[in-house]
Specification:
Layout (H helix, E strand, L loop, with lengths): L2 H14 L8 E5 L13 E2 L5 E4 L10 E5 L7 E5 L12 E3 L5 E5 L12 E5 L7 E5 L15 E2 L5 E5 L9 E5 L7 E5 L14 E2 L5 E5 L9 E5 L7 E5 L8 E3 L4 E2 L4 E8 L8 E6 L4 E6 L14 E2 L5 E5 L11 E5 L5 E6 L5 E4 L4 E2 L5 E8 L6 E5 L14 E7 L2 E3 L4 E8 L3 E6 L3 E3 L5 E5 L5 E11 L2 E12 L4
Parallel strand pairs: 32-38
Antiparallel strand pairs: 1-30, 2-3, 3-4, 4-5, 6-7, 7-8, 8-9, 10-11, 11-12, 12-13, 14-15, 15-16, 16-17, 18-20, 19-20, 20-21, 21-22, 23-24, 24-25, 25-26, 27-29, 28-29, 29-30, 31-33, 33-36, 34-35, 34-37, 37-38
């Protein structure tokens, strides 16, 4: 680490004690036999247990269904997925209105009874695992179920597939809890329609379905859509676009804020380092970017749904960190205006890559999962106290320097322009060059002007704390020939 960067980080952290927090509690560290690499957050059941799925591990290696108490006791691996007959775990479970667990699997063996994933039901004691519907192998039903299911007041289950359908871009489907009445409600067509939904559906107070697609739409960065529960009246509420700062590729569920807005995240885009955003959208299609993640304090690549804490603030996770102190992801806290008021950086490699939704328990703690943790490298179920484990953010100041060698050349000859920045969220060139430039590290280009004159190269780097600019001037003389 360069001396200047070490000094800046040390000074900032000493000034606020910004990252002297205790690590989130590990409810359970997975080993291969009981599961591994969880992506979906567990569901908090009425019986007090957390129920969830893992994407790897178990007796066949294709994931498990587990339960554990919020204090970490009484962990049980309830079911190991059979790749051939059932598909692989991934998307988590919900507790149905009948008290059973419902979920989806993705993929499967082409020679088995499930090859495009399935919808399943299981009792909470692990008995009675049943495939309710195997997705059609030809893709008509959909395939690759990444998300949990949703259930309406009538008991009907709703889900999305990321692939399959008539164009291979996914579907919205419904079925009864006994597996009957399976219906494809919508097949995504790409283009303005959107495609490749990844996050789970939400059912609004108006009884309509709301969801997102990770791709296509008018802005090519995904959509927010709504439809009636019978599949009619499909509408794109908002098409995301990088050009307007919306973010790119929403992959999280939508969280109903109870205030007329749904809240979500995008995995990419934003005004800083392509690190993602937190947004909200209402039922009329009004869309607001609450925050662009900076890739440092607030992390990058959020794919879990945010949740409101006891203080009314919005909390979320970021799976990675594009240059922060630990680079293992983050938990972030926003006030209702989108201001970053609290952060926690994960200490890679001890515990890192939080991915799931945040689930608020009756103890006012949040529960979720991290993909990886030491010593087993199979991830963990974790919890944290939003009142005590997040600290006010302290962003180190930006530093940028440039060097030009030589500063005077003749037309048609070469000069090398190099630059170095620290703590930048973005760097933008102006003058006689333009565009976004590499951040947080040495970079350089060779200049080859063919016309005499004076050329100016300015680089402005910024983060949420401010900005700094550096300029170099190149004098180009007429070629002797």
């Amino acid at each position: 680490m360069p001396l200047r960067l070490s000094f800046i980080l040390a000074a900032a952290l000493a000034a606020a004690g910004a990252h002297a927090q205790t690590t989130p509690a590990r409810i359970h560290d997975f080993i291969r036999d009981d599961g591994g690499v969880p992506y979906a957050a567990p569901a908090l059941s009425a019986d007090g247990y957390l129920y969830g799925t893992t994407s790897e591990g178990g007796t066949s290696g294709w994931g498990t269904i587990y339960r554990v108490r919020p204090d970490g006791s009484d962990f049980q691996s309830l079911h190991s997925f059979d790749w051939v007959a059932e598909g692989a775990g991934f998307g988590g479970v919900i507790e149905g209105r009948d008290g059973a667990l419902y979920g989806t699997t993705r993929n499967g063996d082409s020679n088995g009874s499930v090859s495009a994933g399935a919808v399943f039901r299981m009792a909470k004691d692990g008995s009675g695992y049943t495939t309710l519907h195997a997705m059609a192998a030809n893709g008509g039903d959909g395939g690759v179920q990444n998300a949990r299911l949703a259930q309406d007041a009538d008991g009907v289950l709703y889900g999305v597939s990321t692939q399959g359908g008539s164009t291979g871009l996914g579907t919205v489907f419904s079925l009864r809890p006994d597996g009957s009445a399976f219906t494809v409600l919508h097949r995504f067509a790409g283009g303005l329609d959107g495609g490749a939904p990844i996050g789970a559906l939400s059912i609004g107070a108006d009884g309509r379905i709301y969801g997102t697609t990770a791709a296509y739409g008018a802005g090519f960065q995904g959509t927010v859509f709504t439809m009636a529960r019978d599949g009619s009246d499909y509408r794109v509420l908002h098409a995301l676009s990088r050009l307007t700062g919306d973010g790119d590729s929403p992959q999280s569920d939508l969280t109903d804020g109870g205030d007329g807005w749904f809240y979500g995240t995008t995995a990419f885009g934003g005004i800083f380092c392509d690190c993602g955003t937190a947004f909200r959208v209402n039922t009329s299609g009004a869309y607001e970017t609450l925050r662009s993640l900076d890739g440092q304090l607030s992390g990058a690549t959020p794919i879990g749904a945010p949740a409101f804490g006891p203080n009314g603030h919005l909390y979320g996770t970021a799976r990675t960190n594009a240059g922060g102190q630990f680079a293992g992801g983050a938990i972030w806290e926003l006030d209702r205006q989108g201001k970053l008021v609290g952060v926690y950086d994960f200490p890679m490699p001890e515990l890192y890559a939080p991915t799931g939704n945040l689930v608020l328990g009756p103890d006012k703690r949040f529960y979720t999962v991290a993909n990886y943790s030491k010593p087993n490298d199979y991830g963990a179920v974790i919890s944290f106290d939003p009142a005590t484990q997040l600290a006010p953010p302290v962003m180190p100041p930006v530093f940028v320097s440039m060097n030009l060698n030589p500063t005077r050349i003749r037309a048609g000859h070469w000069s090398e322009l190099t630059w170095y920045s620290e703590n930048a969220g973005k760097c933008v060139a102006s003058g006689d060059w333009s565009g976004h430039k590499r951040i947080n590290g040495p970079a350089g280009i060779r200049l080859h002007p063919t016309e005499p004159g004076t050329y100016t190269y300015t680089l402005t780097c910024s983060n949420t704390a401010g900005s700094m600019s550096a300029t170099q001037t190149l004098e180009v003389l007429k070629d002797r020939h």
